[in-house]
Design brief:
Number of strands: 5
Strand order of the largest sheet: 1-2-5
Order of helices and strands: HEEHEEHHHHE
Largest sheet: 3 strands, mixed
Distance between the termini: 48 Å
Number of helices: 6
Amino acid sequence: MKKIIFMALLALIFTNVSAQQTTDLAMRTNDNKTDNLDINSSGTSNNSAKYTLESYGGNTNTQSVFEDEHFLGGTTTIKWNQFLKNYKRVYEQTVGLSGSTVEIIKPTVFNAVNKINNYYKKIYKNEALNREAITLSLNHILDCANLLCYESDIKKIEQEIKNAKDTKEILLVFDSIKIIYHQ
């Protein structure tokens, strides 16, 4: 009985710690109550922005046991690992055959970001675009994806991603998102 109570407490502690590690909060600007994501007016500095996301708080430098090193390194590695942590949930099975189940949160966004990452990896290997341009674009996409993970209704963005015919059109969807950072 003591062992069961101890295991339950450990599970509660680990669940509580993982829930408290994310300090970024994302809120969408919602002046129009009929729409969950605002469509920007042409008076903004980014004329192609259709969606606005707001970020409250700074970037978290969460350290996990196993970190994937991104091919661009540096800040992109931190954002990539945060992206993987936000979108992948791993559940360990204790009954029956041992193994684990991986759940992907918002698979449309997750698969789109992975597709863009592979696209940029090919471009980087072929030296078709310089490293700074790829890093700047991929960091913006990872920031958008990390904020979209916390959004409750992103049906319009997901629909645009699904309707995209190729990777370049998916890039245009992420370019249409403007992030407002609040400190």
